[in-house]
Fold these 3 entries.
Entry 1:
Amino acid sequence: MHSSVLRRATLALALAGSAALTACGSSSVESALTPERFLAVGDGYSDIGQGPNGTRPTVNDGSNNWTQQIAADYNRTLKPANEGGYSWAQAYARVTQADTTGHNAPSITQQVTSLLNATTLGDRDVVIMSGGLSDVYAEVEAANGVITDATRAAVSKAGTEFGQQVRRLVKDGGAKYVLVTGVYNLGKSPWGLAYGDEVAAQITRLAVAFNDAVLLEINNLAENVLFRDSAVIYNILANEPDTYGIDNEDTPVCTVAEAYDCTTSTLLPGANYDTYLWSDSLNLTPRINRIFGDRSFGESMGYQFQYRW
């Protein structure tokens, strides 16, 4: 109950702040926080080019994803670590477990180590963290869709471990500002729905379990950490598609099996990918990424840190 109330409250604050700024016609952000740098660790949700050939698990059109959108809202940039930047996030990364998909993605735990080894966090640095997508996916796939108590325990454990990495950044790394999001509603993804309604509903509960475990682990870090529940924001987009110009919330717009290989030339014939929710069966389209960045953190982040809700 507590975590559900927290998720609703934080989302309402973010949307209210964003709407107020938009209504004023402001193209920049004014707040008590003036970020010096943005840094990121995470999974495919935040991957901006750590994958093979610098591609991303979405429609590769060169536009910002949500982490870059947040940085842009504060007139800052974010580049992948393999280009000399500060984003280590990579698709297929699990929280602590090894990637078994063949992509050799370093775990989020390893990414945090890389970040802390690469730089010293300053008082105006902002670290963005995402996790959960690959852990939920891997556990469900390993169980062949037969979700058991062991599956649920493994996902919850991953959520706790993700929260511990947030704590590590704050307590060991000295991070003053950490933006955290968990996994969105994979039960409503094309991948989840392919298992059938009953299993899809269980996958949804796994996503909730991961996010709740994260919240429980970071519950006393509010001075330094903002959490946004991407599942709540995703549900708003999926349930009110017309409001956001979404014509298709069920079908992937990409025609290739490998997420990294999707480009504007590998889409469904005649499709406008800006009106699709999903790029492939698990990953969102670029425009939906940017909407999440603006609606969840970007325009209201400084105010949320200022008032320490």
Note: The two ends are 18 Å apart (CA to CA).
Entry 2:
Amino acid sequence: MLLENKTAVIYGGGGSIGGAIADAFAAEGARVFLTGRTPATLETVANRVRAAGGQAETAVVDALDAAAVNDHIDAVVEKTGSVDISINLITSEAIFQPLADISTPDFVAAIGKGLTTHLITTKAAVRHMVKQESGVLLFFGGSDHANVSPGMGNVQIGFDAVESLRKQWAVELAPHGIRTVTLLTGGVVDTFPDIPEMAGARQSIIDASPLKRAATMADVGAVAAFVASEKGRSITSTQVNISFGACYG
């Protein structure tokens, strides 16, 4: 198995993408620690992982609370001996409006939230990974500078901000054997609500691909597991494009 005896911490582990990554990591032998703010959704994912034969534990952690994040990851390392993979799936609060219509305080608060949680969770993992001289930090969303669309409001800006943060981490952490990789998807269609209003957005993502396909949750999980494994050890300081060619970041 690709991730046998590895410890993975997933922030936002109760969400659809977090759950898909947890499924994939656990199927490859990792012990997954799922964090979030809603116990019920975390337990739903954990129970699914366990039913499939995997190892999963949950904790209610506010990823904007540095003390809580640090206490949790310290407890994980005390229990398992290491933290090998950390991924934060919490993004900036999406405001799908023209920039001119978004109030400055709302814009700053939304982008700030995304950057704050990523800074907190990465710093927490890095404290241990530097001592280990190993580890993988995964980020989600990425930058696609060739495909900027109207109506996206602060969404892509938030992803771009986190990607800039990831690039800085990459150059600072590489000397410690720590890899940093962003998963660039261009949109995961099976996470969209199954309502008529979303049909156009779903189809536009598919149409943008030369293969006329779009990444699914299973695709994200499979690629994340490979990148985080020793098989993906040559991949770092970059984005991994899993958009079926729709993105050119």
Note: The chain has a mean pLDDT of 91.
Entry 3:
Amino acid sequence: MKTILVIEDTPTMRTNIAEILQLAPYEVVLAANGKEGIERARKTRPDLILCDIRMPDLDGYGVLHILRKDPDLATVPFIFLTAMAETVDFRAGMNLGADDYLTKPFDDVTLLGAVELRLKKGLDRPTNFVADSDRLTALRQAILSENNARHSLCDQYPTTQYNRKHQLYTAGSWPTALYFISWGKVKLVKADTGGNEFITRLLGHGDLVGYQALLSEAPYTDRAELLDDSLVCTIPVADIKALLDHQPAVANQFNRMLASEVANLQERLLKGAYQSVRKRVAEALLLVERTFYSRSDAHRSEGRLPDDQPYNHSVPLSLSRENWSDLVGASTETVIRILGDLRAEGLIEINGSQITLLDINKLAGLKR
């Protein structure tokens, strides 16, 4: 007889599910919260797990995250139970490695059908990740390659178009995926307890987003928000972990990327501590130009330049005043005043929210 673990904090719901499963018949093990569910899973080694999402202390995402790291339970079919039918919940759960969703309320036929299907598929589930599968091979090659060779990822993983200001993840949430920016712009933002924000990094065309928390196996400490309408490829965390476990070269590449990011952030912090706000504004202008506009291949892929036209530095930069302020680490009023000074000196041109750099060498050489 198959054993099913039901993790549900609502007593009535927990009892109803158990009665239906026992009539099927299945052996049913019950847990009233996430922590108890993990203990019962490790003790009973169930054939399938049904788990509520919204639970106190440890929610369903946390349960799945912990169980997927346990070699003895990583391949057990896992079905989320939720009263929330929002797309973001479905995507987050599936990216984390869930096998299916049941949206409350559901009837006995729906419940038993989902259980039977997942138990059947579970028989064919490999006990270990297949590190040399076509999908993982493509992912490995993309991670180890240069940015302009990574777009093959979008042939292997789902790509979604998001609107400006969409948040890929927020501070405090657990990593469920690695994100590849096929097209668009992203800012990483940290906020203090007073709500003051600072943009720690800008990412765009060809960049991978969200690997810091994934590597540390800890919640995100920042927020990833889109600056433009963007195309984003979503790579499940299970595939990344498979490569990290079986491919040392991939782990080394992520470590190099992380070390480079830390070094760049330390340099920005040092400059922020000792440079004038005027110099920091100039540095922010150059940073945006380097990140989003300095590669001719990126311009052409976005339709900015024809193939036979060489790159020049007259492409307008576009950020809101608030984003310029968060990037510089100064008040919006101060940043606007300094931008006006730079325009008066003939170093930049301002047209609404667009800024054109007229003399990059002088901006880079500002001493005060």
Note: The first strand starts at residue 3 and ends at 7.
